[in-house]
Queue: 2 jobs
Job 1
Amino acid sequence: MSSVRGGRKEGTALDTRSFHMDDPHPDRPREPLRRTLFPLAIVFLLSYLILFLGMSREPNVYDEGLVLTAAMRVAAGQIPHRDFYANYGPAQFYILAGLFKTFGEYLLVERLYDLLIKALLATAVYAIVLPYCHKFIAAMTSAAAVLWIICVNGLAGTPVIPVSLLNLLALALVLPVFWRGVSTTRLLAAGAVAGMAALFRYDTGVALLGIQTCVIAVAIFFWRAEKNLRVLLSTLVPCFAAFAGVVLPFALCYLSVAPLHAIVYDILLYPAKFYHRGRNLPLPAISLKYFQNFEVYLLIPLIAVALYVAVAGRFRSRQLGVDETPGEPRWQGFLVTFGLLALVMYFKGIVRMEIPQMYLCIIPSLLLIAVLFEQRMAFSRFLRISVMGLVSLSVLTVTFAILHEIKRLQVYHFSVPERLVESLTGTASDIEVEWCQTSNALTRGFCFLADDERIEAIEFIDSHTAPGQRLYVGLPNHDRIFANDNLTYFATQRLPATMWSHFDPGLQNSYAIQAQMVRELQAAAPPYIVLDAEWDTTREPNDSAISTGVRLLDDYLHKTYQPTTSFGTISIYQRIPSSSTQ
């Protein structure tokens, strides 16, 4: 029995439910625009509300903190790479800096923007899946996307969120190439979206352009009747031109104010030498308690089945000379397009095999599951069983993941509904009440909670330093680097005293970087420094657990600063008056 059957009509109901932009039957009566947009508006509003209620009140002191601090630095006139180390593109920093300039430098501003992008992502999932599936399946796929987004609350504010949206939009624009010619305008838009993705994350933006190239080449040479190089080039040129049109102006603007070697070091030289060594993790263990980790393993067979179904079905039709049903090139092209996206994003995250690092793969995998489930009756019995198994396991993993996140929010009192109830009933703890009554970047508009020790440290720095003074937040020992607190800079609205405020293994524990940091600290002379021992006991099976033996920065700090107070693992040091010229 063949794995993929031809000529079956059970899975081709999509022909009568296509969105106008991809409709292969332009002479068919179209639905009014209002009826098309109304369900999308409902999905967006519901997604925004659910995501807000599922949001964590706890800011991520490292990932989210470094983006907040970078945006604060940009708002103060600093340039990424030239004035501070950054391993992301500049787009997120400048967007947040613009929002901060307009509405104020509050965490709430960043979170509302973050929720906007996430709700648009959930809506995009629904809109992209709907032409290929029943409305219920599209709605469930969008709901699954919302749940996974909540499960990775720690990614709030990071460029990964807008990148996940741009990935889907860029490939949805080129998807019709599998069954018809695509307009130049649409191809220009696809390339421009990939260019925008590159400005958020250089690596994924370039990868996205590569995926578009592969999708177009596969469609032209294996699905379309016009199989020649001229058609391929005429289709690719607008994409590449638009990509360059978006990226090059920003590149030229950057090079007019900053040296090339700064961005080359941050984006190419350092990651090539140290990223894998300092951040690599083995495959996660699977247990009933952490069953959500199984998603990391589930993604590969899911991608494999999707690509096999599409490719096998196409080659069988060509070999047997069987006429395809009108919808087959559409859903086959869908599986190829988003299967390639999921595959590339999987290998992008393979250094750290964790759910957050697989987020860019998980989102397109949901689209694959939806279409495979919709078309399952066109498959052989073995493939139908395989698809149902993948669907069942996917439901289990997202269920375990969301239950785990809900429990975490409840245990640590970071739940938004809990905050709303406490506000109405007056049952919050004394330290939370006192913290929420203060006015700072974390509490204005909506009260976000750091841990108690960090709250006390933030309040101390805020009351003992002036807004124009610089701050240094580091570690008790800088010979071994895992992570550091970037949130305190933003929470106190104190600019970092060094360009190396974002810690990574192989950077701040090297002699050259520490020597530069000492010179910067001598010049800025921050009156207080904060040393956080939170990660002293963290040991991963990579180079972040290894000491370099370099203590130049530690020696300078202990000669120049004296202990003043401490809050749990956080110690605050004051500059020794006689050290003003050291």
Job 2
Amino acid sequence: MNKRIGIVVTNLAGSGAEKVALSQACLFRKNGYDVVLFLLENIINHDIRECDFPIISLTNRKDTYKFLGKSGDHIYAQLLQTKMNQFGKFDIILSNLPRADRVVKELKHPHKYFIIHISYKAELQKFSTFRAKRKLKLYRYLYENENVITVSHGIINDLDELNIHYKQATTIYNLFDFEDIRKKADETIKIDFDFILAPSAFRKQKRYDVLLDAFAKLKSDIKLVVLAKPNIKLDQMIQERNLQDKVLVLGFQKNPYPLMKHAKLTVMSSDYEGFGMVLAESLIVDTPVVSTDCPTGPNEILTGELSQWLVPVGDSHALAKKMEQALKENITIDQQIIQKFEQTTVLHEYEKLFDKTEQIKGSVAIVVTNLASSGAEKIALTQAKLFKEFGHKVVVFLLDNVKKYDTTDCDFPIEVLTRGKNTYKVFGKLGDHIYAEILQKKMKKYGTFDLVISNLPRADRVVKLLDHPNKYFVIHTSYKTELAKFATRRSEKKEKLYRYLYTDEKIITVANAIVRDFDYLGIKYKEARTIYNPFSFESIREKGEEKIDLDFEYIISPSAFRKEKRYDVMLDALKLVQSPVKLVILANGDPKLDAMIKERELEDRVVILKFQQNPYKYIKNARLLVLSSEREGLPTVMIESLILGTPVVATNCPTGPSEILTGDLARWLVPLGNPQALAEKIDEALNTTIEIDEEILDKFNKNTIYKQFKALF
């Protein structure tokens, strides 16, 4: 059965990207694919008489629902899904242009690709600061964790520089049907004079001011033919330079190729492009080209000897000089240079991409003690979701049947080794062997695993006994700090266990400082790498939008009630805080915690909401998140708070907080066990407008983290 491909684009108006979408559809159909082209708007300026595939318009006019913003995107997406359902299942969806991308983003489809046709980096530089920030926010939202196809290699570099965290990026050049273009170019034209051709639409970035300034400098008596729709501003530009008798504006042409073929030269003067289709088309019909060297596109077309016809952006003098030179020279166009744009070559690149889509990635077993309410168990679940999202087969194995986290959205198996809690723990090493045998049997049900990841020492004791060539132990806390708090005998016993567990094993630490702790303790691991805990920014922020029923200002502590969290320090600090804010604690109730609150007469200022499946809505609405721990690995609550835009004040534990609160945020770290310093910082933070730089958070983005996990295979 042939693959069915859905191609989505805003409309079929006259610009390059829409033309590319139509070419994609024609190419795939010609090569046996089932193709449907979906338009958001019923605007068709291109010749579609030879298109033997459905072209479906979602609405009858322009911008029908655009003014509704995100609600409009939802409406378009529902219309698109309804139309798609009429054709059955689509194997691949290709989206062209941001308007269409906003709609396709809403679709729940495993194999959708967003084709990026221009340099967003160059585009943003032309906008005001406010508009640029707004646009960048949109692009980060659109392409986060999505598959993107760029029409030039330079665009991938731009996406990376803009910290747009795509899932996968592939460059596939725009395709051209050489035979069809040359056939259409043989049509006759009614122009009987020599001319230079400017086939670009009249838009700001096309820089017709530069082109006309350059053309005015030419000594040659040649004319300029412009294939842009008539425009008052363009007419004014021509008149200001007294070029009315030398410039002919013919408007958009359904078939520009005869004009292109008969031109002495094709010129492009843009500030930025994604690719520069007219350059390739001109070379195909054997017409030389002079172009500005935009950040992306032209320098991937004009290569080899043709690269001499590139000029600096915005330099009309250099452009005029190069045009004059090109008109005098007999320029030979090496067909090998443009072969990479030939449709069969490009089709092969698409088919390679489609084949990759079908390939099964490595399988992952994630082992953890249980899914109780602590951070490490939550991270184990997040690891599983991350691998699954990127196409891996994933199974989570729990030693105990304890699940406090919501697993309803987990589309992977969660296998429990025992029905109760600590079933075989009392048997010590013998119990570890029993767990290991059960784990091995459960794993065999799913075939071979390429990677085993273990979380927490209880699970590590079991995974240690597995005979597997690629297992990693994730270390979530500072063992050095932990051991320092124990009595000598217990500390020695624990250290002996850690030496046994991790000697000659591969470890992953959630903070750089933990590796140094291992070195300090003399634990001879085989390999150590730091991979920060992964976070789905989009999901966290979406959950943060849920409403809460608290009608007072508060600071928040989402940490579990454990000795190392130092709630005594937190409450002592609250007693000293001058601001009248309350403290909301997201920890399960405990008589010791209640006693601490009562001893300090803080019953009216502390609200205990217990463990929450969705803590993000409370964190987002807090004035401040406070952490008072004496040791952490990498405190996830701090990162989650910053993702939600809520400032953080934290004790400067030996590992973790100082790798999160970096740059300007480092001032919100306070010494361990110092309630006075913590209280002062809380008051200061409550009276300061704290800006959270998104760049600081990039290292925790799930796409960044996945690339590091991917290297484990």
